[in-house]
Amino acid sequence: MDFYTLLLLENEQITPANRGWHFLVSGELPNGLEIISETHALKVGTTAPATLQEFTGQMLVKLPEGAVLDRLDFIRIIPKSSVA
Asked: pTM (2 decimals)?
């Protein structure tokens, strides 16, 4: 388990694929922000999500036009592989 910061350098970007879980801990998300992963999708409306949002695998992040956000912060969990 560790912290992961995704720097938002463009209005739309894709993270590398991995087999981990990402739990969004950023606050103050702009309306219209979209985060889409292999298992979950979030589109921020007029209120912030009420529960912890989990994203698994590769993520697509879309910033709305004119949004001011330079990063997203996650708690990241990557399972250890078991080798017999």
From this structure: 0.85
Please count the other Cβ atoms lying within 10 Å of the Cβ belonging to residue 69: 14
Question: What is the chain's length?
Answer: 84
Q: How many Å apart are CA 34 and CA 52, to the nearest integer?
A: 15
Domain annotation covers residue 79: no
The H or E element containing residue 59 is: strand 59-62
Please give the tally of structural domains in the chain. Answer: 1
Domain extent at residue 30: 2-69
Q: What is the rounded distance in angstroms from the CA atom of residue 45 to the CA atom of residue 13?
A: 20
Examine residue 25 and state whether it is found in any structural domain, yes or no. yes
> What tens digit of pLDDT does each residue of 23-81 get?
999 988 999 999 999 999 999 986 667 788 999 989 999 999 999 899 999 999 988 76
